[in-house]
Amino acid sequence: MVQAYCVKCKTKREMQNATAVTMKNGKPAMKGVCPVCGCGMYRIGKAS
Predict the structure, then answer these.
(1) Contact at 8 Å (CB) between 26 and 35?
(2) pLDDT in tens, the chain (48 residues)
(3) For residues 38 and 24, is the Cβ–Cβ distance under 8 A?
(4) What is the DSSP letter of 30?
(5) How far apart are the first and last CA of the chain?
(6) Phi and psi dihedrals of 40, rounded to 5?
(7) Which of 40, 44, 30 is nearest to 1 (CA)?
């Protein structure tokens, strides 16, 4: 699981439905959903 910061909950959480994406500038990122509030989460950088 990938951890990311949820802006709505104001805490780090495990991302649900995490998928690897590539941003417009070519850098890798992970996109998912917060399991508590359902807000979109985004983590920039290579998935580990």
Answers:
(1) no
(2) 789 999 999 999 999 999 999 999 999 999 999 999 999 999 998 765
(3) no
(4) E
(5) 9
(6) -70, 140
(7) 30
